[in-house]
User: What shape does this take?
Amino acid sequence: MDIETVEPISPAEAARRNSEERRLNDLARTEMGEKGRLVATQGIMALEFLDRRTLCRAIQAFGSWDDGDDPYGVHDFGCLYGTGPSGDIAWSAEATDSEKDPFVGIKVFWKIDVFEEDMLHGAERPWVEGESVRLLTVMLASEY
Assistant: This one.
């Protein structure tokens, strides 16, 4: 897409596109693997199975959107904190006080990227269902 050929859009159209992109991202997050693709890094895969399962559920239920993490309002990024022993990690959108918990330090990022169907280029129209593929990546913050 040539920037010189891009025509301005109305604020109402921009809001509609933003809303539709948010809806599609929410579907990719809440219906992991069905409405998009899912990738987990080595650090995530090294977690116990039960911890990965509860992490997936926490990402699906995520609702802590703020202007810092979601400046465009499209729900494409989140951060979760894990506390507790391996095999019984509890996930929260809020960091805990490390002095009160014996096992603190797992911070997870998840991010949705939108690609053309070839998975080589970013989607030109990420708000149009069926024209793109959403990729949800889950990683330890230390892997970023």
Q: What stands out?
A: The beta strands are 37-40, 77-83, 90-92, 104-115, 133-140. Residues 33 and 136 are 9 Å apart (CA to CA).
